[in-house]
Amino acid sequence: MSAVASSLPAYLKLASLQMQVTHAYRADVIGGLSVVLLRILLLKAVWTAAYADRASVDGVALPDLMTFVTLGNLQLVLMRPMLVWYVQRRIHDGQIGLDLARPVPFLGQLFAQQVGATAGLLPFVVLSIPLAFLVGNLAPPASAAAAIAYFASLLLAFLIATLIGLLMGLVAFWTVQSLGVGVIYEFATQFFGGALIPLTFFPSALRTLANLLPFQTQVFIPVSIYTGAISDPADIVQALGLQVFWVAALSVIAWAVWQYAKRAVTVYRG
Amino acid sequence: MTKINLGIALWMAGLRGALQYRTDTFIVIVMALVFQGTGFAFAWVLLSRFESLAGWTLGQVAFLYGLRLIVHAVAGVLTGPFFGLDWQVRSGEFDRYLIRPLPPLLQFMTQRVEISIFGDVLGGVGIFLLANQLVGIAWTPIALVYLLLAIVGGALAEGAVRVLIGAFSFRFLASQSFLYLADSVFSTFANYPLTIFGTLLKLLFTFVLPLAFVAYVPATVLLDRTAELQVNPLLAYIAPTVGVIWIAAAVRVFNREIRNYQSAGH
What is the pTM of this model? Predict the structure, then answer.
């Protein structure tokens, strides 16, 4: 623990540099957010047409559904797995040699990069909330307790997204090319996470599959806590527990993969 | 005729060039399939639960979705390079098209081939064939001819938007992000019946962007749903000509805008 504390300034520096990079490419950030807002606009039109005159389907009212979809798609912006592309670029450029020679552990550096990128995105996402409210819908959280549990769940979701991004990035140690993996992951998260259709509406076989995958921890669990769809304290604890399980499992896997990846390093232009 | 033959030869060379990167080719095709597959999986799960969308059944939405994807792929055959046009203008690369004896637009569009069109065509034909099992259209010779014209007309309409946006690279030196935005508007909204959108979007997608003519209007003709259109159904039959008008205007604008090209100060 003391090792982490003494390297804290280094980690903070890395995170703040990455934050500046995000800010420098703000045109891309705004472009990306526009696409998300368009998606929310489409989802509102499609869901409104699907509900037609029904006030509620399977106990889900249309405005609640729109809050779910709006919040789910917005928060996914914060959890874009930038590490996939970051690690690949570092390996491709040969900069990875420099990263490995730094006095702080590589995995810690990567974590700091993702924290910096997300912190850089945060103001843009917050500023787009009024627009998201206009094109979709955003109701306040179900209760104060729901709000607190939501932020805890969102933090766990962020950790899971970071760990998955890191694992996908490490794949580049063997394949060099991992761009496609990241893109496929993003679409899988949208669909199996429930950002397009809440898992409640999935046919049972698909629902079972979604429950076994880590993607539901990115959207469905935190947003269900926010809207109050998961409101019983025991259910909230169970949902957070599942997220903690994924954090633990993915941490162990990431650490184990890293032990192998270290030996597979090939530095170009070293 | 020589121009067309040369264009085809250049395009084939561009394709051979792109296919050299085999892993990239494979990954890009899979990415295109996953992207379109996710969008379709959404429509599929939604319609299995909710039966219909503004009166459109799963089969009918799938038909529209597949048709739109095929049109998108055909539009990409010649307009893929537009995503790199602003860079070529900024770096002065565009010079090369001005010193050869072929129209610059033709040379530019045939220099490189966007591999993702193969993923789109694969997904589009797959969904389209599946939809045909569900809706049971009587494919008379007239219907088949109309389908072909609709695909070409739709592709011209979607391509025209790329040509138009790209044309402003010469003056403003930047167009890529606008092209991506227009592309996501098409891939987001053109897959669904226009009737689910509000008045403002309906007007926008009919008069400002030719989005309705890319697949929706022709699909209403083939699915015998023209009654839901707010215009005379007869107009729907001439929908493919909208693309012709758009592309003619876009090419004119492009050729006029080239005059603003300043090259890079070497």
Answer: 0.88
